[in-house]
Amino acid sequence: MLEVHDLTVRFGGITALDSVGFSVWSGEMVGLIGPNGAGKTTLFNCLTRRYDADAGEVRYEEENLLAVPPHAIAGLGIARTFQNLGLFGHMSVRDNILVGAHHTGGAGFLTAALWLPRVRREEARLRAEADSLLERLALTEVADHPAAGLPFGTLKRVELARALVGRPKLLLLDEPVNGLNSAEVEEFSGTLRALREEFDVTVVVVEHHMGFVMGICDRVVCLDFGRKIAEGPPAEVQRDPGVMRAYLGTAI
Amino acid sequence: MSGPAEVTEKAARAAAPTRGRSLARVATARRQWIVMAVLLAVACYAPFQLVPFRVFQLTMVLVYAVALLGLNLLVGHAGQISLGHGAFFAVGAYGSAIMIDRWDTPHLATLPVAAAVAFALGLALGLPAMRLRGLYLALVTLAIAIFLVPLLKRFEAVTGGSMGLTLGKPVPPAWTGLAEDQWLYFLALAVTVVAFLLAHGLLRSRVGRALHAVRDNEAAAEVMGVRLSFYKTLAFAWSAMFAGAAGCVYTWVIGFVSPDSFALTLSITLLASIVVGGLGSFSGPLLGGLFMMFVPSISQDVNDAAPGVIFGLLIIAVMYVAPTGLAGLAGRMTRSITKILRKE
């Protein structure tokens, strides 16, 4: 489904990604791990066209992803969440989620201003979808509350709902359990596992929480200083000497 | 022991607040419609009770409200800035005036043309301008307002130069039995109602949410599939269109246009009024229109020598008391009053 070949990104003199390559098959859940600054988020930003790649190739369902404009990524069925939350603070939780379905709608300025029957029908459909996700992620209570000011754990769920409402094929999660306590992490794992089945979505997840990654992912890719140092089933990667060195230093 | 019973009770308790809240939401929506209906009824009744001068003042409030509605769309909802909206107001006003002056076009027929011209100009200027942001955008829009007045004075044959154009006012049809000022008032009211309905439809839809998303977080909006340049440019054009429509009604009401009526001060006053009225709120444009109409004359009454100073001080005072504008203040007051009423 997703193939990354020799992807290189440089910022000035720093090479954030150095010829990284890996593949994700449809239906898989792939963990992307690595110490801080390893280039995980940079990779995500490349996949969603926030950054331009200096070299390499990204193919998504036979399409050259690097030639797609940033706003068209969502239309291809790729959704993501952000490491430090990318919510719309002044908008209600429901509206935040509805923006996630933006690419599935067709209302333009004129048709919306005239509030044509077509727009009304579309609006009803989107709202029903958003409401079912609100309920699914236990957000109904806060649906009309502005996103700003809600607890971090709740906002993480709002982001997940916003990413899912557009029915993506590929979901990129950037540190979804960062900042959650262990009970919340446990709960989130369960929810994510269920949602993955329900929405039939392929997931790539960046995470530092090893318990979470090892418990939920089918395969793990480890980056260090912009290079891929290991790839394989979680248990195998965990034992990899290179990975241990990257995480814990050399004296093992 | 009481397993199932407890479970259902728990479920009922969990569901109760949700149901209560959605009922509350329906109630709020209904209350909003009632408030709107009452306001509209009062607005229809007012011109029969007031002296012509007051009716004229209210008409101008409506004219400003339409222009501010447009500016609110851009500044309050899409989070962009324009220091040049007076120019689009002027384009609408002059567009209408020239059509009436040259070709004897019926007044009402000039409205769609004036709005379309302002829209087209907004689109043309928005295309390059909306690639800029913050201070750079402010500067470019400021330039639009600055070059307009000399431009209007230059093409004397069409615009009447510094002398401006004097025109007849729309004549009320006999069947209405209305006086001229009342007819003008109702024309302005009709334009205002249509403009508010259009903006309302726009803002509650996918488009409105996209604009809010652009305002709150551009990067995230783009990942959601919102095409930033498209939404910003069209928001600018629609905003210009509302300002142009307001300018057109202004020409009907005043019956006179001259370059000096549309100097830079107009643009700045428009921006100040929408901030004072309440950015991004539904009632903000109307409150801003009231502010724009009445506060300068009040400051003139307070101190004849320096109305500008009083006007400025009043803006500072409002922003100090109500940082979210008059609309925010009104909302806060309604909430505290309901709280007090509920306690009793």
Automatic annotation (TrEMBL), chain A:
UniProt keyword list: ATP-binding, Nucleotide-binding, Transport
Name of the protein: Amino acid/amide ABC transporter ATP-binding protein 1, HAAT family
SMART domains associated with the record: AAA
Assigned GO CC terms: plasma membrane
Keyword ATP-binding applies: yes
Residues in ABC transporter domain copies: 2-250
Source organism (scientific name): Streptosporangium subroseum
Gene Ontology molecular-function annotations: ATP binding; ATP hydrolysis activity
SUPFAM superfamilies with a match to the protein in the record: P-loop containing nucleoside triphosphate hydrolases
InterPro entries attached to this UniProt entry: AAA+_ATPase, ABC_AA/LPS_Transport, ABC_transporter-like_ATP-bd, BCA_ABC_TP_C, P-loop_NTPase
Lineage: Bacteria, Bacillati, Actinomycetota, Actinomycetes, Streptosporangiales
From TrEMBL, chain B:
UniProt-recorded Gene Ontology molecular function terms: branched-chain amino acid transmembrane transporter activity
Subcellular location, record wording: Cell membrane
One term under GO cellular component: plasma membrane
Pfam family for this entry, one: BPD_transp_2
The keyword Signal is annotated on this UniProt entry: no
Membrane protein topology class: Multi-pass membrane protein
Chief place where the protein resides: membrane
Keywords: Cell membrane, Membrane, Transmembrane, Transmembrane helix
Highest taxon of source: Bacteria
Protein name (database record): Amino acid/amide ABC transporter membrane protein 2, HAAT family
Natural source organism: Streptosporangium subroseum
